[in-house]
Design goal:
By secondary structure, the protein is mainly alpha-helical. The chain has a single domain (21-107), classed as Monooxygenase (Up-down Bundle), CATH 1.20.1280.290. 72% of the residues lie in helices and 0% in strands. It has helices at 10-16, 23-38, 44-53, 61-81, 84-107. Helix 2 (23-38) runs parallel beside helix 5 (84-107). The chain is elongated and about 55 Å long.
Length: 108
């Protein structure tokens, strides 16, 4: 199966065949773009907690390393498939999750 047929391309293929997006779809796309930028910052409180208290005792290295790995995989996927929203979101997750991992390495 070619990569252009391997799922997740329905949106681009529909547009390419002449289907137009509804206003609701466009609004939801804009909403998701904002969410892609805003939601990763939910991790920022964990980053601040580790770096300001200089303690990472209650944080799991395995868990946060898995988050970095997962976000990195999504970032690679987004780059390969030129998915801008996923690329922005994954970049933010990789940066913030990496800050947690670095904090664990420094303060344990």
């Amino acid at each position: 199966m070619s990569s252009s047929r391997a799922g997740f391309y329905h949106q681009k293929r529909k547009t390419a065949r002449g289907h137009k997006k509804s206003k609701e779809t466009c609004r939801f796309d804009h909403f998701m773009f904002v969410m892609a930028i805003v939601i990763p910052f939910s991790t920022f409180s964990q980053v601040l907690d580790i770096w300001l208290t200089k303690s990472a005792d209650s944080v799991s290295m395995l868990t946060w390393s898995a988050y970095v790995f997962s976000s990195s995989c999504w970032l690679i996927y987004a780059i390969i498939h030129k998915e801008r929203i996923i690329m922005i979101n994954s970049t933010l997750w990789v940066l913030l999750d990496s800050m947690v991992v670095m904090g664990i390495l420094v303060y344990r």
